[in-house]
Amino acid sequence: MHTVLSRYSVIGLLSLMGSMSLPVYSQVSSNDKPQEEVADGNSPRELFDQCVIELQSQAKTAGVSTRVTQDVLGNAKYKEKIISLDRNQPEFVQTFTDYFDKRVNTWRIEKGQQMMAKHRAFLAQLNKEYGVPAQYLLAFWGLETNFGSYKGKSPVIDSLVTLACDNRRSRYFSSELMQALLLIDREKLDDQQMVGSWAGAMGHTQFMPSAYMKYAVDGDKDGQINLWDSEKDALASAANFLKNLGWQSGYKWGREVSLPASFNYLLAGKNDPKPLSIWNTAGVTRTDGKAIGTGDIKGALLVPAGHDGPAFLAYKNFNVILRWNNSEYYGIAVGHLADRIAGLGTLSKPLPHLPSYTVDEMRQLQDKLNELGFDVGKADGILGPGTRSGIRQFQLSQDMIADGYPARNVFDALMSQPLPTNS
Questions:
Q1: H/E/C letters for each residue in 62-127?
Q2: What's the pLDDT band for 296 if we cut at 50, 70, 90?
Q3: What is the rounded CA–CA span in Å between residue 255 and residue 267?
Q4: 52-111 tens-digit pLDDT
Q5: What is the CATH number of domain 7-89+153-215?
Q6: DSSP state of 205
Q7: Separation CA 92–CA 357 (nearest Å)
Q8: Is residue 278 over pLDDT 60?
């Protein structure tokens, strides 16, 4: 599955506000000189300047102070690299093995345990107040910014203005920009120190401005919510955010499980949770062979690396993790990293070596599935739930293990299938 960690598509969408229609530009050179004249006689630079003026009018309506409207927004600079990053498409589909190995590593586990010791009392207080155990807050922190060691280097206001004035997501980013400007006023932030991801995510926990505005809290009680400088603000804000996303106190994210050799992989899939009684009947156990339990909770079975890799039973809190970042790989990484920080062991089943596919190859696979009658929707090059379901159906038709993973033999068998003839 290709994993795109698009922060602005998840956290930021939680509190969108309306925006007026803005003039947009398409291209300005890195030395800020217009590259070409456009049809109406305005250069891209003139269109950008006009867009900033319109944004200033919007800021005034939103209640942004005159100082911030004039001195901060008025001096925003176009960043061509931001547009390039927004347009960038990956060449290869990332495998679960590559993704997981890069994120759940010894350094993050040990650093997380160090941070657990450093903030033990405070984290216990957050758990009591918000119901989110310490290891999960630390796992998010570790995956987002390596515990604050890398918070991004793009000027947030410049990035948001550049994207607000671009025609691809103008409405969304103009909304996020307004929230960022209001934050400068509300928290007395120094805009020159506001650096983050290319899309405007900020601080230790990489909140978009709308999430910062709505969910960030003053963890260190100094009268300012500063997600760059205050670890306590960041941890408390993450706890508050997760609680508001629906985190269920007292429940795990999920667990690694063992499957019998005869397991029916058609039961697997994030969107098909089942009661523990069903999984018990299907032969699913804990990795030590013990029963997974008899409670009335439901879990979805995930096999992100196919039947040769580890399997996971994901509970409701896993879906909360996905509301932070809608990626199954991310959710499993957060959950397992949290377990490791808390002192639990490694995966019981080693990660397999997986074939590497280009995005174009994955589109070809999707096209072929559709042509053979296994409907997976539009070919987008992403190995998502729909594509996995189509692969399972194809595998079933070929008497293969229907785990929904395109191992090389599955890919080759699929691509060699003749197309049905019209009767």
A1: HCCCHHHHHHHHHHCCCCHHHHHHHHCCCCEECCHHHHHHHHCCHHHHHHHHHHHHHCHHHHHHHH
A2: confident
A3: 17
A4: 999 999 999 999 999 999 999 999 999 999 999 999 888 999 999 999 999 999 999 999
A5: 1.10.8.350
A6: T
A7: 6
A8: yes
> What six digits make up the tokens of 251?
């429940």
Q: Cα(331)–Cα(107) distance, rounded to whole angstroms?
A: 19
Q: Tell me the pTM.
A: 0.88
Which one, of 253, 385, 389, lies nearest residue 313 by Cα?
A: 253
Mean pLDDT value of segment 376-390: 93
DSSP run (H or E) holding 393: helix 385-397
In the chain, the amino acid numbered 260 is P
Tell me how far apart the alpha carbons of residues 112 and 288 are, in angstroms, rounded to a whole number.
26
What is the percentage of the chain residues whose pLDDT exceeds 90? 83
Other residues' Cβ atoms within 10 Å of the Cβ of residue 398: 13
Under 8 Å between Cβ of 167 and 175: no
Cα(163)–Cα(380) distance, integer angstroms: 23
Amino acid identity of 310?
P
Which DSSP string do the residues of 121-180 spell out, in sequence order?
HHHHHHHHHH---HHHHHHHHHHHHTTTT----EEHHHHHHHHHTSSSSHHHHHHHHHHH
First CA to last CA distance, the chain: 36
What does DSSP assign to residue 302? E
How many whole angstroms separate alpha carbon 208 and alpha carbon 230?
Answer: 17
Return phi, psi of residue 381, to 5°: 80, 5
Domain positions in the chain are 7-89+153-215, 357-415
Burial tier of 219 (Cβ tally within 10 Å: 0-12, 13-18, 19+): buried
Closest CA to 340 of 116, 70, 83: 116
What is the token pair recorded at 55?
A: 């944004």
